[in-house]
Amino acid sequence: SLTHLNIQSNNIGSKAVHDLAMALESNSGLQTLMLAWIEIGDAGAEHLGRALLHNSTLRSLNLSSSGLATVKSLATALLSNSSLLDLDLSSNTIGNAGAQQLAAVIS
Question: Do residues 63 and 36 lie in contact, with contact meaning Cβ atoms separated by under 8 Å?
């Protein structure tokens, strides 16, 4: 089965991100998902956060340059998701609030 999916720098819409997140909830093989340089925004991050609450195989998620301003749902998911080992949020505008939410997860 597919273990790595790289669709970065593609022009996919919010519906496609929602569909990917829904598939990720029940997927048991994907280990790497690269969505860098795709404008998923906060709604996309929320969909992915909900998916991570159910997924137990994803090891690496790249969301760099994805138009994120908030990471609350991702941080919440990380509290219970023990499979994700690498999360790239570089070149987003998560600010102090986002950094504090992530700090609570890693402390």
Answer: yes
